[in-house]
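Quick one: structure tokens for this chain, please?
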Amino acid sequence: MMHTFGDPAIWLPMAFAVLLGLSILIYVVLDGFDLGVGLLTPFEDGDRRDRMVASIGPFWDANETWLVLAVGILLVAFPVAHGAILTALYLPVAVMLIGLILRGVAFEFRAKAPGHQKARWDRAFFYGSLMTALSQGFMLGLYIMGLRTDGAAVAFAALSALGVTAGYAFIGAVWLVAKTEDGLQERAIRWAKATLWFVAVALIGVSVASPLASERVAERWFAFPEIVALAPLPLMAALLIAGLHYGLRHIPFGCTRADWIPFGLGSALFAVTFAGLAYSFYPYVVPDQLTIYDAASAPGSLWIIFVGTCVVLPIIGGYTVLAYVIFRGKAQDLRYD
């Protein structure tokens, strides 16, 4: 056992799998809320819409850094898996990139465009957010289905796209609960209540589809003693959803600390869901095709990458934390002068 643990060919792929998973989870929570805010912008206008955009203004660039880190780890640590996944998901990846570019351009231009053109950039910001959210959900669905492209897999991926989009709208709504005040905060609470149920339905759908798509996943979920190890995750998810349902109706919002409770619970729900998916597919990086050990680079290469990651990761994490500390509190007007 000690010899196996000390073997770089064993623990280095495991370490990079953890780093990859952590990067994806942080991205989904952080960029998820600013995508969600973009999805909710059509429901407000004028000063309230400007305040919604201002709530994500200092953060959205840093949030997307975690996606770059995740793709970079996949490329350099698991190059075989990177090729297989991006080949299978080429079209939705292209749609996602177009959406991200459209969001970035619209975010900058809406603040500088003349008044009669601002509405066009607001629509572009919404459509860019929608394209990104739908494409990421579609990719998740195809991944869960083992990168298949038959009719059933595509249908599930389409439902997954809607579920992820609802999840982003929810996390965006609870972010607005934390970062805004008065009438806009009240609207955000209503949005969070409405989207929470779509999130619950999406989680149930993934839980049903995953064991049906893979016999190995079904064995991990329902065989003994594995079912005992998995049981806390759905129980925690149910408790978090119940806590959100109760909190959005009874928390005395307006106190800065209390305003963050829904976002904290929502982030925990995302983390529990991600842990369930990771448990389901480990040790595969491409479901039922490639394990993390089969897809990993040579141990010598992984050592070099590991040293570089140990330098880069704290910098990215420190920059992210610093941004959130500096711009803590309620959102203010976003100015460029």
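The radius of gyration is 20 Å.
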